Amino acid sequence: MNGELLKYSQMIFTLLWAYIILEGCTEPFSPDIPFSDSLLVVDATITNELKTHEIFLSRSTQGNEESQVESNATVRIVDDSQRQFPFTETEPGTYVSDVMFEAEPDRFYRLLISTASGREYASSPTVLPPQTAEITDVYADRTTTDSGLDGMGIFVNSFDPTGNSIYYKYEYEETYKIIAPKWSPSQLVAGSEESQSVLVVGRDPDNEERTCFATEKSNTLVITNTSGVGEDRVTDFNVRFINRDNFIISHRYSLLVKQFVLSREVFEFYEKLQDFSGVESLFSDSQPGFIVGNISPQDNGEDEVVGIFEVSSVSEKRVFFNYSDFFPDEDLPPFVNECGQVTFPSGFTPTLYDLVKSNRVSYTNEVRNELGALEAYIVVPRICGDCTLLGSNVIPDFWKE
Prior knowledge:
Layout: H1 4-23, E1 40-47, E2 54-59, E3 68-69, E4 74-79, E5 84-91, E6 94-97, E7 108-114, E8 120-123, E9 126-127, E10 134-144, E11 150-159, E12 167-179, E13 186-190, E14 198-202, E15 211-217, E16 222-225, E17 233-243, E18 252-261, H2 264-277, E19 295-297, E20 305-322, H3 323-326, E21 342-345, H4 350-357, E22 361-368, E23 374-381, H5 382-385
Parallel strand pairs: 1-20
Antiparallel strand pairs: 1-2, 2-3, 2-6, 4-5, 4-7, 5-6, 7-8, 7-9, 8-19, 10-11, 11-17, 12-15, 12-16, 12-18, 13-14, 18-20, 21-23, 22-23
């Protein structure tokens, strides 16, 4: 789990307030939620993977304020044999298990939280869903959305021959290659303060700035189910769409897809969350009310909790593709910057000197007269010649060309 509910909580509460304001134009609406106080937001998932697990705690806020992390809490998971798995806060709001462990079949787990203010919260006993579902294929294909957008779709196929899985959630981690479009093997360095001049030198060969890689985790809720169909098979399910104008697919792109098998209770929680986050739900006749998970206060408090404790089994696969595989002989997507060039005369150049000293531009070319004498430097915004502003120059271990 990568902190999904931390990302959703602010959106959800902004929508709740919008709903109240809109409903106020027609009839009073008084939800039974303590909006005057922040609510605890819990994003907690353990899986059948042997690893250290993470739990995220935050506090909801009203309007457009950023959510606040919940620090200094005591967090632990207890199973039905009374084994305890304590978690330690490694950074504000992020709690990591002290030891590696995996969720085991037919064993119940409870999440227990004690906040720094002394409030106690606990989940209901939760078990790993019975399943044998595995991702059989992840593939990329050029596609067009219903609204006419051209781009790349990432699709998943999965199958459980026992028919026990049924409820699925997908997360992904995308990694893409970045090539600085105006990179040059040379660079400008500032001369002396007195001369206010710059010099062209070769780049450090040990500091790669032309090719980088960036990785981002999904921040959207992607769920599906096979209930009511002939067999427990997910077929050509679109987990990610990327507009062909998105620069992240300009060169080579990879997506790691994770499939989580959920219990019906957890799936219904996410389904309500997904329905509520849609703008159309604000105007529907059916008021969604407070989205109840499986975590509740233990000290008879009236405060509510946003979130759910999830125990899931996981299957994952990775896919790679090149832009040229699907858009042969077509222009690359626009870069994140227009990379407009600016020419500065050589010699006493205080403006260029300041730009170079503050590392805000990249050298791309120069102008020489007929005799070969230097007359001017041509520079672009630094981001156009230095990929490290957008990613890391370290090649990921899993990367394949």
